[in-house]
Amino acid sequence: MTNIAYDSANGSLSLFSNSSETLEISLEPFARVLELPQDIFENFAQASQGTWNESLGLLTYPRANPPNGNLTITLQNGYSTVIPASELFSLPRLYDSEGVYSISDPDHTIAEVENYTDPGYLPDWGIPFLTMNYMIVDYGKGIFQMAPAIRTDFGSEGGTLIKTLCTGLATTPTASPTPTGSVQPPPVVHQNHTGAIVGGAVGGVLGLALVAGLIFFILFKRKRPATTEAIPENGKSSRLSATTDTTRRDPSELPSPQPDQNVIVCHWFSAQTPGEQVRISLS
């Protein structure tokens, strides 16, 4: 706060000792009063013409001549608010022997302002200030602001109705009236799933084609024709011959066949790779 002024019929009086003085406070919704440092409190007592009551620990005023001054509060960012006399001064109330909260002294009025002398903590400002102001906090943006409270006699308007606090917001379009007794069902929203269906079908076809190609490749590799003729080993004589691409074998190198026996060459010699063994069967 950069200034606290007491405004009355006698004029406006700043409660600060000089123009450079400032005051930091803590907003406490459960605090009943406004706490002021000792020097500012003494200036308030003098401006409002209050009398210190030792037993109550408060400033008191004759009920027949209550003060009518207001407090004008100015914050560092230029925000200004007024706390009227109706919030600053009230009748003293306490719980009586029967537990009823009632007026304890009908002859005096008290100030909802107390002196605060502990420099280790900030003074608390409660009900008188927050009755006239709203706290606006935007946690996402880290913004803390004050705004004037809406002070309306809602009882004279037919009850305690909730009022709009902000202006300039987008309004909800008013629906067209419907005939009495008829109810219009909510509109059905149809979503277009054509893209998803086509994408799924194409993906399925491509997947099947890949599987079919893989199966065909495996079967083709397994069914390649053999280059040799299977001959039973029983009663046959065999000879293994190592060949290379540069050393060719000729059927004349084989042992002379016996009468009525044919020589069967089971592999082409010219097609062998170096070091490969070729089996020749005679019958």
Query: What is the topology, as strand order, of the major beta sheet?
Result: 2-1-7-8
Largest sheet composition: 4 strands, antiparallel
Kindly provide the name of the CATH class of the domain at 3-152. Answer: Mainly Beta
- Backbone structural class: alpha+beta
In CATH terms, the superfamily of the domain at 3-152 is Acid Proteases
* Beta fraction: 25-35%
Count of alpha/pi helices? 4
Q: In CATH terms, what is the fold-level topology of the domain at 3-152?
A: Cathepsin D, subunit A, domain 1
CATH architecture assignment name of the domain at 3-152: Beta Barrel
Query: What general outline do the C-alpha atoms trace?
Result: elongated
Q: Give the % helix.
A: 10-25%
What is the succession of H and E elements? EEEEHEEEEHEEEEEEHEEHEEE
Ranges where pLDDT stays below 50 over 5 or more residues in a row are 230-249, 261-271
Cα distance spanning the termini = 121 Å
Average per-residue pLDDT, rounded, comes to 75
State the total count of DSSP E strands. Answer: 19
Gyration radius, rounded = 53 Å
Q: What's the quick description here?
A:
The chain is of the alpha+beta class and 283 residues long. It has helices at residues 38-48, 85-88, 127-130, 194-222, and strands spanning 3-8, 11-14, 26-27, 34-37, 51-53, 58-62, 70-74, 80-83, 89-90, 93-95, 101-103, 108-111, 113-116, 124-125, 133-138, 143-148, 237-243, 263-264, 276-282.
